[in-house]
Amino acid sequence: MTFQWTAVAAFLYGEIGVLLLLCLPFISPLRWRKIFMIPLWRKVVVFLNKMFLTIIVLLIVLFLDAVREVRKYSAAHVTGRAVNIHTNACDHTQMKLFRSQRNLYLSGFSLFLWLVLRRTVTLLTQLAEGMASRAALEMQVNDATEAAKKYMAENEKLQEALSEKGSSEKKKSVEATGEKLKKEVECLTAELQKASNALQKENNEVTAAKKQYEDLKREYKHLRREYEQLRDSLNEAEAKKDL
Fold first, then answer.
1. For residues 243 and 236, what is the distance between their CA atoms, to the nearest angstrom?
2. DSSP 140-153
3. How many domains in the chain?
4. Which among 5, 33, 97, 157 counts the fewest CB atoms within 10 Å?
5. Whole-number Å distance between alpha carbons of 19 and 216
6. Rounded to two decimals, what is the model's pTM?
7. Alpha helices in the chain (DSSP H)
8. Is-contact 7 110, C-beta < 8 A?
9. Cα angle value 85/86/90 (rounded, 5°)
């Protein structure tokens, strides 16, 4: 295997390892968000964003070159079998065809997993931001609820004081205070409703992001199984040729 295809294979194995790490269930998106906020990781992300399109272009070029080699040696293999050329020459052509097919799978899966890795990191970041926003909204709703309960308790105390004292001036003052508290309770109730609506919206977005992430995770597992099957079949074919 030449240097360029060795590098592509190492890049593919690295992608598989990173995707497996990102799919671990016991590492929450919030923890990944903390990791992504590390200054060193930010520098790495800036570098990867600059290299993203460059890596895609290189992988596409290698993939197209592998397709060309597969077509070339496939035609040569069929032609050689048709004209009954020497066995050693036919075996050499078949070996070239096997290597070109292997390079095709390496470059194709590397290109696909590079896009999957970028999308997975984006979804994890969005999911973590949604979960953080939901937690903040829940705290805001709880604070508004506690304040509303506090004002309602004070209003009840004022009403009890009003029933005990018959002074008209004190009664008017207490009624004014009660009206003021009532308006504040209404404002807090409105804010509570807005916060509840915002929380519901965030919950829907987080649910959608989780569903998309789970679909992507299942698709990755399916493709990984296919890749392992193809690799095993190619290894068996190479072992037979060596024999």
1. 11
2. HHHHHHHHHHHHHH
3. 1
4. 157
5. 11
6. 0.56
7. 3-22, 29-36, 39-83, 87-164, 168-242
8. no
9. 80
**Residue count (the chain):** 243
pLDDT given for residue 164 in this prediction: 63
Residue 56, C-beta contacts closer than 8 angstroms, at least 6 positions apart: 111, 114, 115
Q: Could you tell me the maximum CA-CA distance found in the chain, to the nearest angstrom? A: 120
Structure tokens at 144: 């508004």
**Neighbouring C-beta atoms of residue 103, cutoff 10 Å:** 23
Give dist(CA 117, CA 4) in Å, integer.
21
**What is the chain's pLDDT, residue by residue, as a tens digit (243 residues)?**
678 888 888 988 988 888 888 888 787 777 777 776 777 766 776 777 778 888 888 989 989 988 888 888 777 655 555 445 555 666 677 788 888 888 889 888 999 988 888 888 888 888 877 877 887 888 888 888 888 788 788 777 777 766 665 555 555 666 677 677 778 778 877 887 887 777 788 777 777 777 777 877 777 777 777 777 777 777 776 666 655
Tokens of 73: 């040696």
First-to-final CA distance of the chain: 19
What one-character DSSP code corresponds to residue 25? Answer: T
Are the beta carbons of 94 and 77 closer than 8 angstroms?
A: yes
Joined tokens for residue 23:
């799919």
* 19, 116 Cβ separation under 8 angstroms: yes
Structural domain of residue 132, as residue ranges? Answer: 3-242
Which residue is it, tokens 């799919």? 23
DSSP percent split of the chain into helix, strand, coil, nearest 5? 95, 0, 5
